[in-house]
Structures are given as structure tokens and as C-alpha cells.
Design brief:
By secondary structure, this protein is an all-alpha fold. The chain contains 5 helices and no strands.
Length: 147
């Protein structure tokens, strides 16, 4: 969470403090594209959370009788909630319109989510065993068919 708040703060600060890094190409269009990314990311995040239902937590934890969820967005990627959050951050960076802010934002949240995903996948692999290992082999982490 600390890196997330740092990322948002840096994006805003750099957007104001580094006008030379402003994204000047199609500024108005880029703003609305950023807002659209944010809304799409929120929709994906809430959809992923609702599909997980009682298995969703804000902290890495495994519930008693938890199973591997492979429906909805989880059919294609293992962490659609994180994909949605990353879309929100990309959208924020685009809406604020500053390359330095966008890069700082993505660097911070990239580090945070890379760590969180590795911890979460280790815990799930240990708790759910072979079914989760098979799921890992069939799906991508964040972007369908790519990564």
C-alpha cells in the first residue's frame, strides 16, 4: 500500500513539477482515454472481486475449503483484479498527462504488484497444491495470451 500511495503522490507531484515532461500529443483525447482506462479498470476489478466472492480478501489469505476459481476473467488470467488496478493506474497517468509521472507511477506499482503476486502465488500453490499448479500452466498472470 505504501508504494501505491507513493506512486500516486509522485504522479501528481511530477505532473506539476516537471512541465517539460508533459505529454503534448492529443492532450484532450489522452485525458479521456485515461478516464476510460480508469473506468474499465474499476469495472474489471469489481467484476473479478465479485467472481471470487467469499474467497476475496484484501490480504493474502486462503479460506478453508477454498478451490481454484477458473470462471469469468479467471479463465484467462490469474490476477484480473490486479490487471484492473493496473489499468486504473495507467489511466491516471494518462489523464494527468506527464511522462515522468506516468513512469514513476508504473515503476512503483509494478514493484508492488510483482512482490504481491509472487507472495500470493506461493501461498496459493502451497495451500491448493496440484490444481493450482495446473491452473498456473494454463493461464497468464495479468494479460491474456501475453503475460
Amino acid at each position: 500500500m505504501l508504494l501505491t500511495w507513493l506512486a500516486i503522490g509522485l504522479d501528481f507531484a511530477l505532473s506539476f513539477q516537471c512541465p517539460q515532461a508533459a505529454i503534448r500529443w492529443e492532450r484532450t483525447s489522452l485525458f479521456f482515454i485515461g478516464i476510460a482506462f480508469m473506468l474499465a479498470g474499476m469495472a474489471l476489478r469489481f467484476y473479478a472481486m465479485s467472481v471470487l466472492g467469499r474467497f476475496f480478501t484484501y490480504h493474502v489469505a486462503v479460506h478453508a475449503k477454498q478451490t481454484v476459481v477458473e470462471v469469468g476473467p479467471y479463465h484467462y488470467i490469474r490476477h484480473p483484479s490486479y490487471t484492473g488496478a493496473l489499468m486504473i493506474f495507467v489511466g491516471l497517468g494518462l489523464a494527468l498527462g506527464n511522462w515522468a509521472g506516468l513512469l514513476a507511477l508504473l515503476a512503483c506499482v509494478g514493484i508492488a504488484y510483482a512482490y504481491r503476486i509472487s507472495v500470493e502465488e506461493s501461498v496459493l500453490a502451497l495451500a491448493l497444491g496440484e490444481p493450482y499448479q495446473q491452473y498456473i500452466r494454463r493461464t497468464r498472470r495479468l494479460v491474456p495470451f501475453l503475460f
